[in-house]
Amino acid sequence: MLLEFRVKNYKSFKDELVFSLVPAPKQKGLDYSVLKETISKKIYKGLSSAVIYGPNASGKTNIISAMDTFKSIVLRGNIRNNDDQNNPNTAATALQLIPNNTNKKALPVSFAIKFITNEILVEYSFSAALGEFLETDYPRKIVSETLKINNSLVFSRNDSLEIHSLDTIQKLLVNAFEQNAESAISLAKSNLNDEELFLMNSFRTMFSAKLVALISNWLDNKFMVIYRADAIHLIRKFSDPEKNSVYIEKTLNEAATSFGINSNALGYMVDDDNNEAKLFSLFRKTKKSAAIPAELFESYGTIRFVNMFPLVVNALLNGGTLVVDEFDASIHPMALMNIINIFHNDDVNIHHAQLIFNTHNPIFLNANIYRRDEIKFVERDEETHFSSHYSLSDFGTTGKSGVRKNEDYMKNYFVDRYGAIKDIDFTPIFEELISHEKGM
């Protein structure tokens, strides 16, 4: 369960962005959308969803990009560039694209995350000197790095490495650690690599492979960050498949049928040597059946839904945090509404899954769908071009700018009560084009 994500000096977010999924105080109503986890008799609460609004180029996608970049850096364990051609988020592989492009000097980029997994509260952060925007030959360095487990500081790294209390991870330490603690700490301090994260390297091998495995598993399998959802192409693989046989996944096919398909059913057909399967539209006739590649027959919205729905299933069954850029594009609002309601349903969302997405669709600005602290905004300053982020709950409930639960959020948004909206008028452009045309 994600509680908080922070980033600083990342693209348009020059100042620190604090993306919180901790419920704001005094938020009444829709209490069913609050998740609860107990650690050492202390109850931690998290929101089951969040929706992000803002005009084009305001920085909405940069939030998701930052999450994906953080995840990518941690899992590979270093701040060197990566040649992963499959990641549509170029900043995750070419780190010189990360720093804010207005900086007059090189400033560190900082990341921090707070989440709960396997009844353990994890708080991990690091900052890295990556140089100025587009600077490729800068000597990169991890400036700071910290790990807290259950509110207890395990290690901190600045100019040097300090190992603090290991009591909270005693059961997760490597075998015979106590007998070799002194030498392990000494060796770790003397072998720090400027470009490598201590957590994913020396700490994993010499201190606690089990703890790092828990953290890595959450990041890799439960923190599902989808940058550029329109680029998703779900690949299906089957063990020992029969060539030219059609495999129908019951749950996915039922969901797609409810969503809307142009054929009788959807199925996967294996037609090559690598066990990968392609999606086909299936037609049942009295005497003969037919299969046509789905992209040639189904709507773009249906294909997009079929690629996305398994991720929703995965999140709900495994308690994952699904973060998607423009999740609702080409998907009907009623289908979206139902998925959101499932994440808010305590009887279905028993594993504490979370859904976060950005959108331009104002239909979700509704007190009956989202709590005020689940509605997030991003706007970009016209002069500095810096992005800022805030929640509807930040306005409070009293005073001239206060927001009450029974207000019309959508109407207020379009009259610029909350910011994060931009007045756009293309008329002068076309008037000039027409005047030139008349003068010819």
From TrEMBL:
Keyword field: ATP-binding, Nucleotide-binding
InterPro entries assigned: ATPase_AAA_core (IPR003959), P-loop_NTPase (IPR027417)
A GO MF term: ATP binding
Pfam hit, one: AAA_21
Domain ATPase AAA-type core, first and last residues per copy: 50-365
PANTHER family (UniProt xref): ATPASE AAA-TYPE CORE DOMAIN-CONTAINING PROTEIN, ATPASE-LIKE PROTEIN
Name of the protein described by the UniProt record: ATP-binding protein
Species per Swiss-Prot/TrEMBL record: Blautia liquoris
Organism classification: Bacteria, Bacillati, Bacillota, Clostridia, Lachnospirales
